[in-house]
Amino acid sequence: MAPQVVNEFLGYLKDPDSAIAVAVIKTLTGVIQRCNASTMMEIENALQEAAAQLKAAADTPVDKSITLSSISVTAVCQLFLRYVTRCFLEFADFDQCKAQLIDRGKMFVATSLTSRKRIADLGHNFVRDGMQVLTHGASRVVTGLLLQAAKTKHFSVVVTEGRPNNAGYKTAEVLSKAGIPTTVIVDAAMGYYMEKVDMVIVGAEGVVENGGIVNKIGTFSCAMIAHAMKKPFYVAAESFKFARLYPLNQSDFPHNCTDENVPSETHPNMTVGSPTCDYTPPHYISLLFTDLGVLTPSAVSDELIKLYQ
Ligand SMILES: *[C@@H]1O[C@H](CO)[C@@H](O)[C@H](O)[C@H]1NC(C)=O
Ligand SMILES: *[C@@H]1O[C@H](CO)[C@@H](O)[C@H](O)[C@H]1NC(C)=O
Ligand SMILES: *[C@@H]1O[C@H](CO)[C@@H](O)[C@H](O)[C@H]1NC(C)=O
């Protein structure tokens, strides 16, 4: 039996337009509203417990139809908890603080929807007439940006299928419906296609402190190939994905990136490795399009400090 907050969270995620962040904030705001606590400390504890349950749910997904990133979940929880602590220090009055937090939650939900639009506004001009754009994985932010670019420009897109969940097909469908010439390729053809493309753009599950990203498996390879072929590699991500993490290598982050989706007909002595995400270091990234502006990877840490001040 999943805890109530997890069921609530999964319920919010059923809305196909709802970002993970929005579902997280709605869930945490619900925790505050229901909480009979009489001290801020109790509210903080209740939120911390809820945050741990949401992370656990994202690390071992109950519902296979929903792709959850425990990195995004944790980043949003941490940002909200940081705000709770700040509120705790600013308002002596308990009820006033509680009301403020609920308001803040609602405001966050509203701004998160405009973040995607702002990123599209900032980034769509990087796509120019006649370009061929490669994207890897399924990112609503990237799709939004490409759709906005398509209103004034003609360009084509190459989308990797994005194993193991093949999320690229969904992206390709949305782009094709909008009339953008789109080609789906097997992930292994990234290198083959790279010489033909003009730029690469991907989303991120988490943007880490050094300006690197954690994203769908294969993003790291894609970035290295782009770098080797001197093609710009852009990332589009909302600032609520900025995570207080500093990975040193591919396995150095406290999130579950393993996939149990293993073919059944394998030899008993054989193991199949199928991680779902990887870490791309900052020096492979040209620019990040965020709701805080267009950032170089090295500017990310300053923005992160401001967010968590
Ligand atoms: C990755 O970094 C962590 C933390 O520094 C370290 O414990 C681990 O051995 C490293 N793994 C590899 C494969 O280098
Ligand atoms: C990681 O995810 C896999 C596949 O969903 C699951 O089998 C495993 O128990 C998870 N590990 C942790 C530590 O949550
Ligand atoms: C698995 O490997 C062992 C040697 O480590 C071997 O003796 C055994 O026959 C192998 N199992 C199968 C089913 O091939």
TrEMBL record:
One Gene Ontology term of the molecular function aspect: guanyl-nucleotide exchange factor activity
Top-level lineage group: Eukaryota
List, alphabetically, the Gene3D superfamilies matched: Translation initiation factor eif-2b, domain 2, Translation initiation factor eIF-2B, N-terminal domain
Q: Name one GO cellular component term.
A: cytosol
The record's annotation in SUPFAM superfamilies points to: NagB/RpiA/CoA transferase-like
Compartmental location: Cytoplasm, Cytosol
State the family named in the UniProt similarity comment for this chain. Belongs to the eIF-2B alpha/beta/delta subunits family.
List the protein's name: Translation initiation factor eIF2B subunit alpha
